[in-house]
Fold:
Amino acid sequence: MMPATSTATTLSPAELSYLHTSLTQTPPLRPDLRSSTEFRPLRAETDLLPTCNGSAHVSLTDGSEALVGIKAEVHRTAGANVTKRLDEEMREKMSLDEPSSTISAAAAAAGLDSNRKPRGHPDWISLNVDISTLRDDDALLIFLSEMLREPLLTTSTTTTTTTTTTTATRSSSLADMLVINSNWHWHLHIDILLLSPFTASGTSYPLPLLSLATHLALRSARLPKLKSQGEEDPLVDDDWESSLFLFPPPPTSARKPESSASGKAGPNEQHSIPPREAGRLLTMPPITLLVMTVNSNIIFDPSHSELAVADAVLAVSVSFSSDTTTHHHHHHHAQTPTLLAVRTIETPARDTMRGVPAAGEVVEGDLVPGVWRPRVGGVKREVLKRVVRAVLGASADDSGVAREVFDGLEAFLRS
Amino acid sequence: MGISILPPSDSDDDLGSGSPGSPSPSPHDSSSDTSMPDAASTSSSRRPGAGKRPKLSSSQRRRNRILVPGETITDEAQWMRGHGTFSAAAPSSSHASASAGATITATLPGPLHTTNKLLSITPLRSRYHPSIGDLVLGRIVSVDRARWRVDIAAPLLAQLPLSSINLPGGVLRRRTTADELQMRTYFQEGDLLVAEVQGVGNSDGVATLHTRSLRYGKLRNGVFVRVMGEGRGVGVVRGRRQVFTVATVAGSGSGSGSGEVDVALGVNGYCWVSRHVDPEADALEKEKAGKAKMAGAGSRVGMSISNLDELVSNEIYSSQNDEIDYRTRKEIARLCTCITLLADAALKIDEDTVIKAYSAAVEAEMEMMVDEDDEDAVAAAAAAGVDRKSELKKRIVQAVVGGG
Structure:
């Protein structure tokens, strides 16, 4: 009999009990002696696939690797012609002073306001996760790809207060950035290959690795420069050297690092941000962090065995944005994390075996210290609040884990 | 402490080959009594005097070269094929020349061994191959009728018959159907146990285990570490002491615990690091507790060698952990890290290297603690991208390789 893929093996009740007790200590004592907010070191490289618009390869020391490739295609926007015609008709009718409620509603539904850039559509981003040993319709693949795709599509509305006006600025979502004109858009294919010894069905363990890899791939993704303008059919520049970053690197106060980074790709001006209206927020791709709680302890980046004793598992998605308004002299380009979503994930500790007490069987519900009892999940409101605070940072001095992760990613991309 | 993202590097490999006493030995050289010609000296340019000994003539026989599966080793008829090699059986076909029939190809990736005229390949890594008498750690995969299936990192699952375990209530008890029904109270899926290989099936190579000793049985109070089993002569060493106790720094202070930590290294690469339990003292204590409890219920015989077994085995199948203090837990975690790092650095794992690595890790922590007070040093280290773990690994390799 072949051994089952040794990953599916559960931990023994004695191990679970030991691990759980270790993690409930103050400070939590993790098996690899990390602090509770410390991440495992990653190895990463970007732009490694020559035929992709952007790619990243990220690996963990436990043998998990993620390879992400991003491919962009020019697609015709579905229904663009129809809405255009409707728009024209509407204008004619407006000029004839015949308000037609039906047509204007249709035009509004199409999001085609003449003085605004058209909005993107969620279908323009397709994300696909592949794990070599799993079927394509495996629940884990669908779960992981939706967990990764969802934060990419959401938009966060931030209220920016400037000295002159208070405007509710809608930060552009990724889909909105793919608009070329009212007839054409870019379609992004994000393909993720995961190599991991821990891919038992239902585990959320690879989620942060995939999220960080996707983030890095998106940050390295470049779109060819458009030669066409306005409503012309898109014509792109063949010269890859002059391509533009989908997510332009945030400007630094010191100009030197940026110019050195761009030296490889070409002259500086190629890195200029694609035309965007001022006051719009410069967003960065979101990241999803996996956080687990054990009693009242909050633990970031749980390893596979730590996750097995979690009282509750939370996936926290965070986006980053910085204000690009430049009419103020005080530039602060610090990326401010914005919470996109907090999701609870069922803890793997639910499906574990109960421990056997030394003194024989006890009454159901009695707690014997040192004996493992499967967790039933659930998280207290107060703990949830503390998780969010730990991710986003409670005050100005305490920057929060999301910011630390972003700085880590930023430091890697600049190096 | 945030996240550190580093570009991919080969520093891990450099570490191994760069050190003076290279930790990755080449079994290829040590056991071969046939000298290999260098790349330059082909069969045509044999040195005089070396002609007596057989030599592989092909120019690709380079020192320490790793063969890949499918690669032709030799096509000379004088060689015999051993493990990890394959020779296409030459049928009595007229067109196949004699030399073509003798072609030996590699079927495993790894360096070539030559023993006189026998060519064999030791794989770079492989699963554990059980042999009788090995002390192994295993994890229960399934509970079958009157036996358990145990994962011991071998190509096939091992089996542990119900008749090969100590049952509570004495050694000489019959195995009844009632025992078969409550097998899960002894071992359930996921449980870890330490056992000995009692036999290996002749036809299929399935190992049969037994736990008929007080040293064997269910594992508690600790952490499981998995390192690579066999291959290249690294990993857990066979034939050394595999279960030993390490006196840790947790006991040196005023702590209540003894600070001693038990380490069990299974030949199959599964290891267990746990709080030290002295079986006799433990049994005495338990007996005392039992006596106190049933003081009124009647007299009990004292502990003797005849019923020691009985006293212990009542508790042997529980999965209840004892209370373990913070410092001991920390040292257990540190020992686990040491074992993992030893495996990462492709070093041998035995009592000697584990203890050396552990003391190096303790020393390193002391120094790093001093460093941490100095904020500039911490910032400099962070800027240089110095990762603590790789630093620790470097120190451990130095300690182990440098010392012996």
In short: The first helix of chain B runs from residue 11 to 18. Residues 235-404 of chain B form one domain.
